[in-house]
Amino acid sequence: MPEYSLPVRVYIEDTDAGGIVYYVNYLKYMERARTELMRTLGYDKPALLDGGRLLVVHSANTRYLAPATLDDALQVTAEISKLARTFVVFRQRIFRNGQQLTEAEIKVACVLQEGMKPAALPADVHAKLKQYQHPQSGPDA
């Protein structure tokens, strides 16, 4: 399955005093893309899973390649580079007119709401996420 892609517009509140998108807002755009990807898979509240489980960001490795500015039309993508029993790693990129501005690897863990201990992804979630796994990423870990 191809990368999931979400269109995003840059607004004044997204920019810093220099007129470029403030670095943390790229992470917000990526969060929106992951959330909307999960919505397309049928999850209305994507961070809340059955059985008292939550999806939480474990880590983010981000590279900023070029700045976005006020009123830019962006495309924010998400695909799965690794799908394991208790976590998923998303490869995410942000583009403006085909030019890549940002890339990131975001690890999202499944935890029990009670105690925040690692938990297995529900089988249905795992199966649906597998649709967005990059074909060259190899088998599940």
UniProtKB/TrEMBL annotation:
Residues 18-101 form the Thioesterase domain. The keyword DNA-binding does not apply. It comes from Simiduia agarivorans (strain DSM 21679 / JCM 13881 / BCRC 17597 / SA1). SUPFAM superfamilies: Thioesterase/thiol ester dehydrase-isomerase. PANTHER family: 4-HYDROXYBENZOYL-COA THIOESTERASE FAMILY MEMBER, ACYL-COA THIOESTER HYDROLASE YBGC. Gene3D superfamilies: Hotdog Thioesterase. It holds the Pfam family 4HBT. GO terms for molecular function: fatty acyl-CoA hydrolase activity. NCBIfam families: thio_ybgC (TIGR02799), YbgC/FadM family acyl-CoA thioesterase (TIGR00051). This is Tol-pal system-associated acyl-CoA thioesterase. Belongs to the 4-hydroxybenzoyl-CoA thioesterase family. Keywords: Hydrolase.
